[in-house]
Structures are given as structure tokens and as C-alpha cells.
User: What shape does this take?
Amino acid sequence: MKSEGELKLGDSVTHIKGVGKKRAQLLEKMNIRTVEDLLYLFPRKYEDRRRAVTIMEAPFNEDVLLEVRVVTKQLGGNPYSKKRVLRVLAEDNTGSVEILFFNGKYLSEYFKPGLSLTLFGKISLNNGRRQMAHPEFHVTGDKDDIRGLFPVYPLTEGLYQGQMRSMQLAVRQTAQQIKEWLPESIVRENNLCDPAYAIENIHFPIAKRPVLESRFRLVFEELLILQSGLFYIKWDRERTYKGVSVGRGISVKPFLHMLPFTLTEGQMKAFGQIERDMERDRPMNRLVQGDVGSGKTAVAELAMYKTVKSGFQAVMMAPTELLAKQHLATLKGHFEPLGINVKLLSGSTRAKERSEILEALEGGSIDILVGTHAVIQPDVKFNNLGLVITDEQHRFGVNQRSLLAQKGENPNILVMTATPIPRTLAVILYGDLDISVIDTLPAGRKPIRTFLRYRDSRKKIYDFVEAQVKEGRQAYVVAPLIGESENIDCKSAEEIYEELCKAYPALRIGLVHGGMKQQDKDAVMESFAEGAIDVLVSTVVIEVGIDVGNATVMVIENCERFGLAQLHQLRGRVGRSGHQSFCILICGTDSETARKRNEIMCSTEDGFVIAEEDLKLRGPGEIFGTRQHGLPELNIADLVKNADMVEKVKDVARRLIEEDPELEMPEHAELKKRVKKMFGDKIQLRL
Ligand code: ADP
Ligand code: MG
Assistant: This one.
């Protein structure tokens, strides 16, 4: 064990006073191994304990600082028991509060009547009495008072806030060893403060301003490390992978003539970008973002057409069997008349057929393969794979995308997603991809009319559904839960199904949920698609990609339980034809958040607007499952709240990588080290 003065940034945490093996293991769980790691664990927020309030003005159930005097105390319960409740009555000039310690015997002597205390905790109201359970407390005027700005750290189970704070105190001085490591011009142009100063102030704040300056610096450097890494990956790929130029001089006109519709402007624009990428002799890596119903499939088909006509094969992977089948039907309809051979490979393809397909694929007689995850199995081999498409990309991880790409020699990659991602975020999440946006919907679509209703209107709502069915339409009813639950406020899909069957015997009603076998789910969905079922009651399993033009009503029960982006996806299942469509949100609560979310849903159909709002309400991690995207975790930068900085830093990082792609210049040495550390082995970084 060393004394504080000798600690070095690179020392193991076990060198810190009071940190033993067990504590080190807990820290390890948080990826903290060295003193430096600890310094770079930043507070999530600060508790402002600078000003005390009076008992009467203190809000309930929020952390408050009180200055009180002890009046009386009482130790309850059995005198022989160790667990005795200590009740301390304390007051200030405005009122009184009862302090509770449930295991308070050992504290009993401490709270002498007349003692002046500073308390920090939450007040709750119990039978008209103000109570505070287990507050932090200190004798007023003691030297380590509990006042000030207190950092609140992220923790792991078994580790406490107080322990984290004292470890930070123990390593405080080592922050001075951090020297400025960013190039001088970047520091100057962006007005960045010194890193040691930033670390000191983020952990030991004295006032808001230095904290803000420090945050700015630390967010900036974290984003710079992230984006430099992403730009490097892109640069490296473009340098290394020689692709093939595909389809130069091959016109897609014959295919366009086949299509039963003309492409929208947005579709044309996206395909124009794809075509340019394909004709270059570097592999394409492009993300096509288009709201539900914007017609991404047709754009993908054009790319496939061009690929096949140049003598290459194409593969398209969808997240569910049903979606793959749907694609198969569409693709067959468009391609077979042109003599292009399309086949499906999924988990339920029978062994004999599977081996025939694999053989034909390797022999080159299959031009286009559509499928589920089944297409990335190791024994699936292509003859000459030129194009890889993943549909609904948000359902796949980065790894699955690259596994598929490895089946060809640097094939072109096209990634499609309906999850509208605000541009700033897309830059990060898909930092290694070029992005096309389909920003128009096919003509003739009527806007979906969205209504908000409460439980008391359920009968009216389902009467309306019945009326729509009588006019020949179909409807979806979505519930958050599969079966009965303890939560009486929330109806399950099964309950709703039974109720509807009873109340509307004339309707043909189907049920599908995530607990069912894939085959059974598919069977129900297929009969819905064929029109043999009028009303499909389901959980969110129908969320992705299903295209039934005749369905015009989407009823969502307990809509407060779904995320905004999810509601948007669900709503996108209707409004896919010329019929007027409806989305009815049944809300089980009137909470403030629910109200805001419903307002947004009723006021716009623009997926990007909804996504932005969703981000504001929930934060990015939850929505995109950042981890799934293989993106490193961030300590301080928030891709939503710091959106402005994301843009700004992007330019800095791009210039930096253009100037020194492999970060070989001495002034980039520390940045290189940090990039390597951040990305670890998550993304193949050959720096
Ligand atoms: P998504 O982008 O959600 O995957 P799809 O590709 O499934 O959308 O297309 C939705 C529906 O719109 C399909 O039925 C498709 O045939 C139709 N469609 C696509 N493009 C056009 C267009 N330009 N004009 C008319 N209908 C179109
Ligand atoms: Mg689609």
C-alpha cells in the first residue's frame, strides 16, 4: 500500500488506501482497474446540499437539507431485541419532523435533546406526520459537514456512494499528473480547459461554472475519441477493401417497367446514391433510412437487379420468418418474370430442400437468396456474392451484418431501417456508414387519423372496429402483456381476445403473441394476411415490417406502456393503402408523461419528429440498445443532450483523421492510446 502522494495514474486500484480484493472486484465490474479509470468515472449528477430549507417549506419525497434541534427520542420494540426502531423528534422554527432509524439502537445515545443537527433526506407524510427515514446527519458546525455540491456516482451492487466518494478523495491528487494531451490548436479553437482542472472540478465541485467548463472539456474529449475511432474504421475499410465496380452501364429501366408503381422522389434519390456507390470500385456501405411504408423494399430490389445483371448474387436478411416470406413473395413477383431466380432459406426450410438450395447457391444458379438468420450459418456459401442487404437493421447487431458480408469478397452492403434516427445520432450509431434517407411516402396515402381514448370508451371503440370489418377492412388490436397479470390496470392480449370473441361473435378473431411457437405465429399471421381473420389481437410481435394493405384500424391498449418509437412502428402497420386508416390509443393513466406522449402521437406522423421527442423523454440507450450496435459505452457524453457538440466534434475528428489517419504523429499519441482503450476489441481496430 502506498501513501497518497506516491499514487500513479496507471496504478491498480488496490494501491488505494482501503481498497482490498473484494472492492477491486466490484470496481472491475465497472471496468475500473486503475487509478486513472477511477478518475474517469464521472458523477451522474450532483446533489445540491448548499442551502437548507425549513421543515414547513420542504417539498415531500425530494431530497432536502434541514437544520433542526432534537426534542425527544424514543427507542421502540422489545428491549432484548437487537432490532429496535429509534424515533427522534426534531424541530425548527416552523414545525417538527420525526426521524426514523429502523435499526437504531446503536444511535440512541447520540441524539441528545437540544442537539443541533443538519439532516439530508426525503420527508414523507404519514398520518399527517412528517417523517424522515434514515437521513444522513451531522452535528451542525462539525468539520466534515454534509453541505455542498455532492457528486452522485454510478455504482454497482455492493458498492456505496460514500465509498465511492472516499475513493475519489483518496486519488484526488493524482489528477494533477494528467497533462494536456490534445493538439494545441484544438484546445485553443474550442476553448477547452486543462484536463487536470476538469477532473478536479468534476469530482470536487465548488460552483456550477467550473463544473460546466469541466464537463465541456470532458464531453469534448470523449466524443473526439469516439468519433476519431469511427472515422478511422471507415478510412481503414475504404483503403483496404477493394470492392468491384458493379453494374456500370447497366440500366434498371426494364425493372422499373415491371413495377406496378412509379418510384417516389425519395426512392429515386436513395437509389441514385446507391447506384453511384455500386459503380465505384470500393465496397458500398450504406444505410437507407425510411419511415414505415416509405417503400424501402423497392429500392433494395433495384440494387439487387443491378447486382444480378452484372453477374453477381444478392442476399437479403430479414429479422423474422414472416417478413422473409413476405419479401420472397414480393421479390418473386417482380423478378421471376425477368428470369431471375429467387429462393428462401429460413430456420424451417426442410433438410432436403436446404441442401438443394445450398448446392444451387454455391453453383451460382440462385441469383437472390432471401432469408432469416439462417443465411449466416457457416455452411451457406455463395458463388459470387456481390450485395448484402439487411432489412430492419435495428434488429441485428453489427456482428451479424459483418458475418453476412464475409460470405463474399468485400460485397456491397446495404442496410435498411425504419427506426427513424435523428441525424446527429445516426452519425454516431452508424458512424461507419453512409446514409440515405427516403423522405417521401408513396402518393395517395391518406394520413392516419389518430385518436386518444380512455378505458370507458372501449365498447364504442370495438363497435367501430366491427363496423370497419363490415365494410371489408381488417384491424389490429395490440396489448402490452400476453397473459393475465397481477396488474389489474392492464389488460392482456389473452383477456382481450376472450372478451372480444364473446362480445362480437360475428367477427373472425385471431390471437398471436410472443409466447407462441414461431410456426403457430406465422400461421395466424398468414391467415390475417390472406383475409381469413378480421381482427388480430396481439402483443408487439407484429411490430416489424408486416404489410397488410387492407388493415385500416390499429387499436393499442394501455398505450402508456409502449415507447413512442414503438407506437409509431405499430401505427405504421395501417395506412398502407388508399383506404382511410385509424389509430386508436387507449390510455390507462393520465400521468404527465403519458399525456405528453399521447399529444405527440396525435399531432404528428413524422417518424423523425417522434424519434426526437422519444429521445428527449427516454434517452438513447434505451431506444437503440447502444450495446447491440457495438458502440463503446460513454462515461460522460450524452448523444442526445450533447447533440450540438456531436456535430462540432465530428468535423474536428474528420479533419484529424484526414490529416493523420493512423494517428502516427507524436501529438496524437495519447489520442491513439485512448481510442484503442475505448474501442477495445469491440470493433476491429487495427491501429
Ligand atoms: P417499408 O419502407 O416500410 O419497408 P415497403 O417497402 O414494405 O415499405 O412498402 C410499403 C408498401 O408500399 C408496399 O405495399 C409497396 O408495394 C408500396 N410501395 C412502395 N413504393 C411505392 C410507390 N412508389 N408507389 C406506390 N406504392 C409503393
Ligand atoms: Mg420493410
User: Anything to note?
Assistant: The two ends are 35 Å apart (CA to CA).
